[in-house]
Amino acid sequence: MGTTVLQSGSDVLTDVEGSEQGDLRTEEMLVNMGPQHPATHGVLRVVLRTDGEMVLESVPHIGYLHRCAEKIGENLQPFQYIPYTDRMDYLAGMNNNQAFSIAIEKLVGIEVPLRAQFIRVIFAELNRIASHLVAFGTYGLDMGAFTPFLYAFREREMILDLFESTCGARLTYSYITIGGVHDDLPDRFLEVLDEFLDYFEPKIDEYNQLLSFNHIFVKRTANVGVISADDAVRWALTGPVLRASGVNWDLRKSTPYEIYDRFDFDIPIGLPGGREGVPRSVVVGDSWNRHIVKVWEMRQSCRIIRQAMAQITDGPHIAAKVKNVKLPDDEVYVEIENPRGQLGFYVRGDGSSIPARVKVRGPSFCNISVLNHVGKGCLLADIPAIVGSIDIVMGECDR
Amino acid sequence: MTRMSVPWRPGGKQVHRGPAALVAGIAKALYATFAPLVRAFPGPLLIGAIVAVIVGVWINYLVFEFVDDSLVASSTNLAGETGLLGGPLALGEVRAGLTTSGVPGSGILCYVLYPLQYGVVRDVVSMGGILGFISVIPLYTIWWERKVAGRIQSRTGPMRVGGWHGWSQSMADGIKLICKEDLCPASADRPLFKLAPYLAFVPAILAFFALPFGTYWVFRQVDVALVFILAMLGIEVIGVILAGWASNNKWSVYGAMREACQMVSYEIPMGMALLIPIMVVGSLSLTTVGDTQSEGWTSWIVFRSPFTFAAAVAYFVAALANCKRAPFDLPESESELVAGFHTEYSGFRWSLFFFGEYAAMFVVSGLCVILFLGAWYSPLPMSLADRWGLGDSVGARAIKGLLFAGPLWFVAKCVFLLYVQIWIRWTLPRIRIDQVLYACIQVLLPLMMVLLLGHTLYELFVPVHGFVWTVFNLVLSLIGAVFVLGMIFIATYGFWNRVGLVGSLGVETLPGS
Predict the structure, then answer these.
(1) Domain of residue B103, residue span
(2) Where are the beta strands (DSSP E) in B74-159?
(3) Does A382 contact chain B (CB < 8 Å)?
(4) pLDDT range class, residue B379, cuts 50, 70, 90
(5) Which of A150, B100, B116, B373 matches a 20 to 30 Å C-alpha distance to A186?
(6) Cβ within 8 Å, pair B327-A144
(7) Which residues in A lie closer than 8 A to residue B510 (C-beta atoms)?
């Protein structure tokens, strides 16, 4: 292996293979980052091949949280499987429930009442905000800023309180279920939700001021781990990671499911530096854009929730007779827009009430695969910046 | 084969050997004695302790001044010029000297002052004081850091231990750390692994021996105190590198190497920043530097010229990096390196690193205070004391000690700078290693060279107390005053208009509420 020199005029370490320039002979080192490491968001293990502070290769090793989620789905009736979907992406339980419910509804042909669809949208978007708040906060932690994490969790607590008041659970809800939602909204729910949105929306600017536009934070994340639009599509990246690379693709807009076509909202995509207040050093597809896209999505989610609150109708919250349904001898594949990307459920029935096959397409699993591709030649400190911005949840990655 | 030093009996009871047994025994006995007392009267005890410390410092200040002033004066009058303080005095001579100075209670006081004329007694007394102070600083800085961090993050911080705002949390942590197992990884280099924490801790303490807290409040009046302190702060890096290397852990090595890069680079701009006040005063003795800033706010070196003003800021940045405080806490950055160089350390040895870090924080703050921020003098000019007719009587000295100059002012300023360090840590993200080195070599170092040259020319060509000099001095003093007053105003405003922590919105709609 060659030597490492600091190129003058740039802050990028360049590898000079077998060059006479440097007078230091360095040796490569294999370092295990994880599965118990504070910056790997759970039990991700990344094997790093490093030369000094420079990372030559970063191979993610997964599977430490494998719980046979798909196999369990092939042994239970669909409504019994709902609680297991919570535990995949445990930061976005509502969205997981929603994805599986839509798959089964499509397979069986259940008509979901309109009120239930509104409630689903409200809760899916609230959960998206809660999930992005965790991503925002932990990304601050990865960058060494502790305080935004606590602010994000303070707001998330309120969302969890709303969830708890509705379904009694704070993390694994099993609320959105086949045919609708499990319970109707409690009294005063919409009032309290309105109060929360009024409180929360101005806070987003505060967070941006504290973290997103902080000079050090921009220095740490701008132009780090750049994924081009081509690469993003080729690696099957989805969600904020894809949109940060400048690809305008969001299932809520491109192939609307539920009633998303009734709402007016924008899809934030990654922007080049120097425009609309974006720091100059930012490029499309870098870690900063992956971070800020999530922050902007929180604002769009607030817009969707407000419209849904205005349009919500009375009626039943769940379709009649949804338990013990026989699954037809047919197959279905449904993808919805999870906070982390496209969560897909493939379900095949064989005439019994238990699916013959359940397969999950997890966004974290696909997104983390790009790590080695973007992590080549970056610094050791950039690995948490990239992993954090890709925003994985190992529960859903390993399933 | 993994072999770890596990000092456990088969029965599961922890066994301490040697000095560890003594320390643990003392800690347990102290806890058994004082815990019920502390639990019964937490608030009065804390406030009493603070008052006692202030009164103690103040009385000590008076006593030492007397020893240095009155006794030296009387000893030269009475006993010639032999010995450390001009030869040992008899008890009667001390009493006579005190009586002529008009000290009340000289009959009793002479017994206290008599042994203090011997250098060895004074050394033991002041060393006890310094060691006590050094032990208390990290304990309370850590507690305070946790409280400040809590408030910044809209939570409360420690609230339980000790009763009143968790004021004895750090002591409880300390007892826990001392009682913990002394773990050494099997693959580690045992002697070096055990030696490293002391190499990081002892220099930080040694720096205190040359750090003056007041004109007479210094353990050793070293003529090159600044060089000595910088050298001691520099030695700390050896302990850290040793710890990282001896741990035989890749993350620890990373931390140690980062520390080496960072500390060695930042010592240069830090030293250059300190050269500027040295150039103003013309002495490396910190006592001399401090004593030139006695004429109130405008006489502080930081307001002397635009260059000293910039140098003070640059020094503080470099000092942050030198103490590995955020945003320069790369050697122990937990999101990248797990815990950096102290990954493998636990218990007492780990706490030594912490003690060393917080002691070093205090030392660099102290240097900043002495060299830029008026040392142990208050913003009021000392000449005001003369105008008020405060002489050398005990009461006048007491008022002077509280209002114009004294270790309390020094400690208060240091604590303020510690607060700023804490404040920065809980606000800013961390910088990357190449940016840290870039900031040092490409930004701070050239800046310091310009400042050094600029200040040299300023001193050469701008006449002191001339028109330009006075204008700059006043404008900079005004900026400083506005800055401090603004900060006080914002803090007060925030304190009076604080809202309670945000409660649960949905609590009233929860089932069963």
Answers:
(1) 42-122
(2) none
(3) yes
(4) confident
(5) A150
(6) yes
(7) 161, 164-165
